[in-house]
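User:
Note these tokens:
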Amino acid sequence: MTATPRDPRPLVGEPLSLDLLNTRWMADGVRQDLLADTGGLTVWLATNGLDDRFAADEATLQNVVRAREAISAVVDGPDAADGIARVNKVLGHGRIRATLSAAGPGEEPEFKDPAWGAAWLAARDYLTLLAAAPDRIRPCAHEACILHFFDTSRNGTRRWCSMAACGNRAKASRHYARGREA
């Protein structure tokens, strides 16, 4: 069995729906897309612990990209009604089934077609974030960054996807501008 390639993205570890949005990022002014092929899907599934549940095939890739576009339309798009309809269409491919086991009550996702599983889980995760704190779903404040994050800071004032990258660039730009003014 071959090892999964390293995830090349600058920001990982966000909730599943935002991690899906972050499969597109900027590197040296060029837009990158992890989901350009099934190899990138393999990386994304593995990064999110889904590689043992879903196949990294063409059908799954198409559905995950559809979910990404739907979530992006709601998060970034000016036409929320279209985005809502697109997210609902993805959600129409699965459901939550209540279960009871020796450990107690639970919930289990079910999918009409397993190729929709990862896409459905990402759309469902977006609903969970909306229910928890919709105002904490944020784009990075750096003008050249297209990443998103869920602000878990105590006071809810996080602005950057990464303080080490985008936050530092913004501080350096301000410092440089102050130096030029003097």
User: Anything to note?
Assistant: The first helix runs from residue 16 to 21.
